[in-house]
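User: Could you write out the 3D structure of this protein bound to pyridoxal-5'-phosphate? I've included everything you need below.
Assistant: Certainly. Input first, then the structure.
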Amino acid sequence: MTLNTSPNDLGHVIEADRANVWHHLSQHKAYETINPRIYIEGKGLKVWDALGNEYLDAVSGGVWTVNVGYGRESIANAVRDQLVKLNYFAGAAGTIPGALFAEKLISKMPGMSRVYYSNSGSEANEKVYKMVRQIAHRHHGGKKWKILFRERDYHGTTIATLATSGQPQRAAQYGPFPDGFISVPHCLEYRKQWDVENYGERAANAIEEVILREGPDTVGCIVLEPVTAGGGVIVPPKGYWERVQQICEKYNVLLHIDEVVCGVGRTGKWFGYQQYGVKPDFVTMAKGVASGYAAISCTVTTERVFEMFKDDASDPMSYFRDISTFGGCTAGPVAALENMRIIEEENLLENTVRMGERCLNNLAALKEKHSVVGDVRGLGLFLGAELVADRKTKEPVEEKRVQAVVADCLKQGVIIGATNRSLDGLNNTLCLSPALIATANDIDRITDVIDRALTNVFG
Ligand SMILES: Cc1ncc(COP(=O)(O)O)c(C=O)c1O
């Protein structure tokens, strides 16, 4: 059965969606009077909706995912061929794409050595939490079981990953949460918490303060986004990561980098942590790994971590007793292999650096022109513009006016994003994450449209 649809069928699709689909992160009351948006086709950076409207997608599928763009036949063909050959076998055994993608991935991650497959960013992160807890039981006499996370970071939607949500609105009403997850201060210098010169070092020292308060023998791990995504596109200040690494080494705290958004090219390097010379113990990734052509996430560890789960073969409880049924789907790694080949062959990391600089410059020009733009920031094709009602006091613009900018861009044919349901009173950052194939024309069109939208909404 193919799903080629005529305009008449699409009317039915919209009604079927309205009647039966429960959308993510959506208040459904609105759909009683307006149509849910339904996308039916994509090519490159463009998508078309069920009403025939064309859009330039500046957020890679809404949530920084479709890194190599839409309509990649080579990925579809690779997945199709693999599905016909062998679609699945449970992850206790290996498969050809599983082995070959792990090898390829590790070749981009010096110092790391093992890949554990699952299906979503949340799941990949939760695997780390389980590993840390098991390490605490087996190697620290039950100590070192606490996991630190940072204000404004996000790590997923399950109860345990929400326990590490630095975004209170994402976690609200879903508690109580399990014990042992402790927050550390964020590092966004634009919203300073300390008046010091070396802000990066100071913000990292706040982690040390929390470790000392909790007791270093209780803290096993810290999870951090290399560049915070949904919490407001926060690029850590100079000196931050170097100090984080020192602190982790000093207190024997494992470092878990959540690369679910930054991973596989988004910042212009294969991984965000590689911008800072950091040596992680765990790296998790999902969204861009296969650009949304198949569901795949990876929890990557060092050999040192891996060894801790095989040091006593006589103990039947000593190994990582975890299973992810769909971690055995072969579509994920085969799509991921082809995704990586495309990034290499088309030099998309270089393009990301060049287009990211262009976009940041364009945003800086918008800041000159519109007083409502308080701060612009970003790394590679991962950018944000924070909107403020008053530049001096930095009072955030009301969320509904931020959303009005997003809606105005959509009306002009460009899909942009904004932080939402994250932080009380601070859902005020416009977000951009176009596919890594974006051209100079695409970037200029995106920022021109934002320029007009800011004028339309704020005058
Ligand atoms: C940094 C980060 N980690 C984890 C997740 C969770 O990923 P998933 O939605 O695939 O579970 C997200 C999702 O937006 C994310 O932005």
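The two ends are 51 Å apart (CA to CA).
User: Perfect, thank you.
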